[in-house]
Structure formats: C-alpha cells, structure tokens
Amino acid sequence: MNAVKKSKPSLHTVLTPQLLDLYEIKDSIVVIIDVFRATSTIATALYNGASKVIPVDSPELCIEVGKQTSGVTAGERDGKIIPGLSYGNSPSEYPRSFIENKTLVITTTNGTKLLHMALKQGAKNIITGSFPNLSKVVEFLKSQDSPVILGCSGWKNKFNIEDVLFAGAVIEEVKTHFDIQCDSSFMANQLYMQQKDQLTTYIKTVTHWHRLAAFGLEEDMLYCISRDVAPSLPIFKEGALINQV
Amino acid sequence: MNAVKKSKPSLHTVLTPQLLDLYEIKDSIVVIIDVFRATSTIATALYNGASKVIPVDSPELCIEVGKQTSGVTAGERDGKIIPGLSYGNSPSEYPRSFIENKTLVITTTNGTKLLHMALKQGAKNIITGSFPNLSKVVEFLKSQDSPVILGCSGWKNKFNIEDVLFAGAVIEEVKTHFDIQCDSSFMANQLYMQQKDQLTTYIKTVTHWHRLAAFGLEEDMLYCISRDVAPSLPIFKEGALINQV
C-alpha cells in the first residue's frame, strides 16, 4: 500500500488590516481578532445566548439595522456610548439575563473593517476570536483542514500587541497541524510564549491598555485576556455572526 | 531658577513599507533597515571607502546611472547577478581594495522603495542601518534630538523578523532618549532582548534565512547580523548615500 503523505494547509498572521491584500484570502478561514474589545464582546454575547451579532461600521448603520432587526444597538467612542445607540462595547453589558435570544447590532471600527475586507476577498469562512473563546477557535481550525489567516484588527491600521498575543496563543495550540512559513506568525508565537506566564502584568504595558484605562476599563481588559470564559464560536453567515454549536 | 523639563522626541517602528503612510514622516529622521542585505552592504561599501552609494529601484536605472557616474553597478535576483550589471548584493564583494573612491550604484527592491517613500514624505534626514553599523546609527540618533522612524523594509511589503530585530537592537540603546508610545517598538525591543544571546541560532529559523540559504548565502547573512563590523553612517544627500564622518 502506498500511503501518500498529505501536505498540511498553510497558516499566516496578518498584523494589521492594511496588510491583508498581501495574502491569499480566497478559500481560507479568516479569524478576525480584536481583543480590546469587539471580538471579546461578540464571543460573550453569543455565549450568553444572543441569537446573532451584526457588526456594522458606522453609528448611522447601527441605528438603521437596529430598527430593522429590533436589535440591541451598541457602540462607543472614547469610552462613552455613542449618541443614538443604547449600549456600549463592554462584554460585561451582555449577561445571559439581558442578551439571550436578542440580536446585538454593534459598531466597531477596526474589527468590522477587517471582516468586510475578508468577505470581499472571498474568504471561505470568517470566525471571530479572542481569549474568552480561544479553545473554540483552536478546535474549529484543527477540524477544517483549510488554509488559515489570523487577522489582527490593530488600531487604525497600526499594529497592536494584544491582537498579536492572541494570534500567538492560537498558533501555539495549532502549529503541528499547519505548514507555517511566515515571520509574522513566528513572531506572534514567540511573543506569546515569552509573556504568557505574566500576561496580566505584561498587558498593562501596551499602548491600548493606557488608552482604555483612561476610561476606567481595566476590568474589561483583564476579562478580554481571560481564556475560555465565553466558549462560543462566532461564525459569519448571511450577514451576521452566529454561535456555531 | 525654573528649569523647564524638555520633552523627549518620539520614536516609532514601521514594520513594513506598506504601513509608512500611517506615520508622521515630515521632519523625522528615518532609518532605512534592510538587514538581508542591502543596508548591510551599503554600510560595508561606505566603511571601505566608497565615495558614495546610489540606490536605484530597477536594473535599467542601475545601468543608466552606472554609465552617468562611471560607477560600479550591482544587483541580484534569486542569488545571481542581474544581466547587464557587474556585481552582486553581497557585502563581501566590496573590500577596500576594490571599492575605495568608487561610486556604487545598487539596485534593491525593498530598501530603495522605502527610502524613496520617506524622501517624498519630507523626512528631515534619511540614514541606513544594519547590525554592521549599529553603533553609528545609535550615536547619530542620540545626538539629534529629533523624532525617529525606524523603517523596516520587509519582504515585498510583508513583515520580516531580521529587520525588526535590528530595530529592537537600536531601541535598546536609545530608549531612554525618546518618548516611545508604539506597540511595534515594544514588540521589536522585546523580540530582540529575547533572542540577542542566541542570534546566530535564532536567525536560522526566519523565512528570509531559508530563502537566501538556498543560494548558499549563509556566510553573508551571519556577517549581516554582526555588530559594528562596518562602522559607517550612510546618510542620504543629493541623491546618494555618503558616509558622514
């Protein structure tokens, strides 16, 4: 019997949305990563029973889609709820007692932009990930045998550390399943391995921590780097993220 | 006497040329970094007495400028000298006995592109850096009291590790002189500090090592990560890099 050794699918890490066009997105699984706080909040709302989450890229669209879907509208700028919307971007605002069976329409800048770019470029599947649903993301990637793009949302197209740390955590769990020839992935994995045992101290040194801490959001951020506290798998289908169970 | 505490200038690291437009380049010092091998070779040629180095972005322009300046033309693609040019991109090709008092016209892709972008965006000074001239770069940055952009050339607009390691090495030496609020810089510095004691082992894991090792260029690359073996300060003036002494 001649067993043919099957080649492993590729895995790449995209450090900011501005670099997405350098990668082969078509037919890949794209993981949208926006640790502070969009993809942490999305994982949480779906874990707590939201029927779906619709990410939109402007407050105006959020209001409009909110009306169409009778959904909960959410969005913040500079730590405050955007006028015209009802809730903020904090995962703590979406316990089961509030969000179960509801539609959440959320406006975010960095993550939503990246999601729409990946959609336009023909991604096979789009899921969202953050530490609260790390194991669910890992399980899914290991089960699919498809090329993977770990897409960091960054901050206004710039690189940020918290998203890359999550990419590095995913890589640590899936790396034997993929053929990785990508310096961004090597770096992400090395940075995560260097810092994983002091993540709650280390995270306080990154630029985004300082920006959000000024709005009193320290507890939110510590939640956003907590592993598997909201084990859902948000997958994008027909315009919305639903929990694939 | 009321001493006014002077604020420190900023320092940012740009991970690939595709991200340069996100940063304030005007009036900054931009350090062009292309460790494998353009900026290592440039440092070496100038250290060995080349009168100037003219970086150009195509073989055609290299031939033309070579004729105009009676210069030595250099450029490689896939490890071979480009037809029509006379020499390659290896620092070992430019000892003092050959290059002293000559003009070197060199075609490179990633580094030259970044240099021209920085020029167009109004950089105050453009210098080039790599491990062979690390201390000269550090000295210059510390002496200038200007904002600094560490510009990594990457590979076809993608992130690469060797350029970021050099940025991290510079940051380690200058960080008390600058106000650094930049996750790319934090990451670069952390990666360098994590790997600096095993740099010759670590460098063999990065993607560019594998690409160039396939052309037998291992010795070149080990030279390119050697500190201060060609202590020159290439600074861009009137269309060419000259050694500022």
CATH architecture of chain A: Alpha-Beta Complex
By CATH's scheme, which homologous superfamily of chain A applies? ComB-like
- CATH structural class of chain A: Alpha Beta
Q: N-to-C terminal Cα separation of chain A, in Å?
A: 38 Å
| Side-by-side strand order of the widest sheet of chain A | 1-9-2-8
Mean pLDDT across all residues of chain A, rounded?
95
Using CB atoms under 8 Å apart, which protein chain pair has the greatest interface?
A-B, 27 and 27 residues
Gyration radius over CA of chain A: 17 Å
Nutshell version of this structure?
Chain A has one domain (11-243): putative 2-phosphosulfolactate phosphatase, CATH 3.90.1560.
Written description of the protein model:
Chain A is of the alpha/beta class and 245 residues long. Chain A has one domain (11-243): ComB-like (putative 2-phosphosulfolactate phosphatase, Alpha-Beta Complex). Helix content of chain A is 38%, strand content 18%. Chain A has ten helices and eleven strands. Chain A has helices spanning 38-47, 59-69, 96-99, 110-120, 134-144, 161-174, 183-195, 199-202, 207-213, 218-224; strands spanning 11-14, 29-33, 52-56, 72-74, 76-77, 80-81, 103-107, 125-129, 148-152, 234-237, 240-243. In chain A, the strands form four sheets. A four-stranded parallel sheet of chain A has the order 1-9-2-8, with helices on both faces. In chain A, strands 3-7-4 form a three-stranded parallel sheet, with helices on both faces. The first copy, chain A, has a two-stranded antiparallel ribbon with strand order 5-6. In chain A, a hairpin with a 2-residue loop joins strand 10 (234-237) and strand 11. In chain A, helix 6 (161-174) packs across helix 7 (183-195). Chain A is globular, with a radius of gyration of 17 Å. Chain A starts with 10 loop residues before the first strand and ends with a strand. The model of chain A has no long low-confidence stretch (mean pLDDT 95). At the A-B interface, helix 7 and helix 9 of A face helix 7 and helix 9 of B.
